[in-house]
Design brief:
With 308 residues, the chain is of the alpha/beta class. The protein contains 13 helices and 7 strands. α7 (147-158) packs across α8, α7 (147-158) packs across α10 and α11 packs parallel to α12 (243-255). The chain is globular and about 60 Å long. The structure holds S-adenosylmethionine (SAM).
Length: 308
């Protein structure tokens, strides 16, 4: 099959493309949502599976992604955060769909564009916003968050081993000189690096990126809306790149909630029926062939569920 049709592979190479399409089990006349349009790789492939009656709605909160919008009358681009999925679909007269796809995180374009501040390798202001309409930036976080909040962020989102020491140092350092740029921040914390510096900075920057864009909050909001939006038998496919996100998806697909325990009611009434049947006991991961062609796919995990 000819994957990557009208999309923009220079912007982003779609990961787990055929696996995600198989998982969505696309009905040709169905209504689908791509929550993370990006370069349009997954969207173009969904469209290729649809007939004239099919519809596709593509969300992306980054104005750059809009430039890749597909010229196809069955497609609508929605330039907003997918955490408002139901609200914006309703504005387009859509109250139920056959399939939902989300390919989380940032695109290669966002990462490689120096001015965006996502990469540890380019000098830029400490920005990291996917949506430039929001005011919170990495600079604001580093210069204003309290020590405890910084520690939790570095630890939970970056798995930074010395999160407590780093948070304490950030607060002390910024009192002398506020952080403004990627290189300035890296130089200021250079003495705190543990292990491989590239890996260390990548973890610190990942934590900041997840916090700036409230990525786990958006995923939470997407998941809780999905059961009401999906038709019975409809599919949801989520590709994540962080163990925290994969755990949220796994837990929600299995039980319909985020608590580890299945015991919803301490007084013994039976737990409510989960809204989904999880179709992936273990997550689907990229093949050796895909990894050799696109090393950035390496931590991708796809999970699929069907609405009961
Ligand atoms: C990994 S890329 C998706 C790439 C896309 N599947 C493709 O084939 O080109 C993630 C995209 O989702 C967008 N995004 C991430 N979180 C979002 C959110 N909460 N709401 C809307 N868009 C989001 C990012 O701006 C980025 O363009």
């Amino acid at each position: 099959m000819n994957y990557m049709r009208d999309s923009n592979p220079a912007y982003h190479i779609p990961v787990l493309l055929s696996e995600a399409m198989d998982g969505l089990n696309i009905r040709a006349s169905g209504v689908f949502v791509d929550c993370t349009f990006g370069g349009g790789g997954h969207s173009a492939e969904i469209l290729a599976h649809l007939n004239q009656d099919g519809r596709l709605y593509g969300f992306d909160q980054d104005a750059d992604a809009k430039r890749n919008s597909l010229r196809d009358e069955r497609f609508v681009f929605i330039p907003h955060n997918f955490r408002h999925l139901q609200r914006f679909l309703r504005l387009h007269g859509v109250t139920e769909v056959d399939g939902i796809l989300a390919d989380l995180g940032v695109s290669s374009h966002q990462f490689d564009e120096p001015a965006r501040g996502f990469s540890t390798r380019s000098e830029a202001s400490l920005d990291m916003r996917m949506d430039k309409r929001q005011s919170l930036t990495a600079e604001t976080i580093l210069n204003t968050y309290g020590e405890q909040k910084l520690q939790e962020m570095f630890s939970e989102y970056g798995e930074v081993t010395n999160a407590k020491t780093l948070a304490k140092a950030v607060v002390a350092l910024r009192n002398k000189t506020p952080f403004r740029t990627v290189n300035g921040f890296k130089q200021a914390i250079a003495d705190l690096v543990k292990g491989n510096p590239n890996r260390y900075f990548a973890q610190v920057f990942q934590a900041l990126r997840i916090e700036v864009n409230d990525e786990t909050g958006a995923l939470h909001d997407l998941l809780v809306q999905a059961p009401a939006l999906l038709k019975t038998g409809g599919r949801i496919a989520i590709i994540s790149f962080h163990s925290l996100e994969d755990r949220m998806v796994k837990q929600f697909f299995r039980s319909g909630h985020f608590e580890e325990s299945d015991e919803q009611d301490p007084f013994g009434s039976s737990p409510s029926q989960p809204p989904f049947r999880s179709l992936t006991k273990k997550p689907v991961t990229p093949s050796e062939k895909e990894l050799s062609q696109n090393p950035r796919a390496r931590s991708a995990k796809l999970r699929i569920a069907e609405k009961i």
